[in-house]
Amino acid sequence: MELRLAGTHYPLETLGPGKRFGVWFQGCSLACPGCMSRHTWDRAAGRAAEVSDVLARWRDALDDGAQGMTVSGGEPLEQAEALAALLAGAARLRDGARRHEGGAGAGPDLLVYTGHEPGELTRGRRAALGCADAVVVGRFRVAEPTRLAWRGSANQRIIPLTPLGVVRYAPYLARGAEGPRLQVVRDEDGLMRLHGVPLRGELTALESRLRQAGVVLTGRSWRP
Length: 224
Ligand code: SF4
Fold this sequence. Notes:
This protein has helices at residues 51-63, 80-101, 123-128, 163-169, 202-212, and strands at 2-12, 20-25, 47-50, 68-72, 109-113, 134-137, 157-160, 182-186, 192-196. The chain is α/β, with parallel strands linked by helices. The protein has one domain (2-179).
């Protein structure tokens, strides 16, 4: 099965606990004002990828000791069928690896970000999330800044969906995460990517500091 992909990255360290495999779906029609990922809105942009190829990268990450997969976007639920296939395959590979380790209550978790509100999670959308261990729900609201772990605005909630999700995320439902909130990486196309959830004003401050150092950013995904 094919999906429209904005990118993948490993190791991702700012969207969920531990060292993770990140998958960004391409396409989002929710258009939250202030979104930092406007490059993921256009469904025709990004690139086509086979779910099996993404899963091969996940297998490599598991072999390296990845502690989870984070799926974001874009809006993953706008490709519900591909999301379901990706999560099912990721859970199968994870459970195979976990059997060797003999632990059922721990191990790599599957976290999905969606801009949909809990009341918008129709039966079909919930089915697509069937293999996720936890989900971060809710639109990004620029007027509601927060320091809550892995969330961009105070309205967004982490909902654990499985016992593993409870183990990994219950400690963070109402508190911040340790460690940096933003990770800078250079992707395979040579572009600079910022992964994570910045605090209010952090991107403007970054632009300003870079400008003072003689670096001018172009094509910023957080600017219209
Ligand atoms: S914040 Fe997320 S849901 Fe909102 S427009 Fe950006 S990618 Fe879409």
